[in-house]
Amino acid sequence: MKKAAAGYVAGFLSAAVVFGGVAYATVGTKTIEAVYSNIKVYKDNVLCELKDANGTTIEPFIYNGTTYLPVRGAANLADMQVTWDGNSKSVYLWDEMVPEGTSFMEVCPPYDENLVNTYLASKGQSFEMAGEKYSNGMTLYGSGYAFFNLNSKYQTIECTIGHTTNEQREKTVSFIVDGKVVQEVTLEPECLPQKVSIPVQYGLQLKIVANNTNYGRIGIGNMTVR
Fold this sequence. Notes:
By secondary structure, the protein is mainly beta.
């Protein structure tokens, strides 16, 4: 039995990946003729159902001699997690999820740093911003920087950024993922610490750099990741 699937490829890729012969640069809508033959998938000789994010069963099909499987269903069979990023049109697979609220500094300490002090709650370390104590973070002095190897594991970093003293001058700090600035935070003179969400989007490398010619100090505390 054959079914013509107009526009199916573009929609299918939001929940599935082509196993074999992937055209990574293809963008747009394409009409294909898919062959549905009641294809069955077994794991350890046990018949399995492949489902999408809504729990709907999706049947594999054949196109140009290649069998296509829904990536979420196939990943679940392999005990892997899957996330679809609609902004970048990317599918991310990994072996385990990072629990929400995980301390970023505990699971991903910097591998290179300059003019930076780090603070871990597990070691009883803390610093102050606006009279309150913060930990699981860092302070950057002047044009200090820190590099992190993200290993494509994390989507977002939540943190609180502020002056570590009653600063009279403006300061900024940049978050750079794989060479691209994803967010820049400016601290006005005497402003209170602010909560920030940094979209690292499963990148490979993160660089945090302060841009302060006046050699003031910026605090980044309570860094959690998901």
